[in-house]
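The following record pairs a protein chain with its ligand, zinc ion.
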Amino acid sequence: MTHYICTGECKGETDDETVGTCQAESCNKFGEPLKPCNCENGRHNAH
Ligand SMILES: [Zn+2]
Ligand SMILES: [Zn+2]
């Protein structure tokens, strides 16, 4: 299932595509677009 992740410090994750941007004010990517991810293991394509 597609979810959306923040690639910044907060490592935020949401299933709600209407959120769209990072919601963590302390994050270095606050307000930046979240990245769609389709992983099924929770690692978000981490290496
Ligand atoms: Zn973030
Ligand atoms: Zn993922």
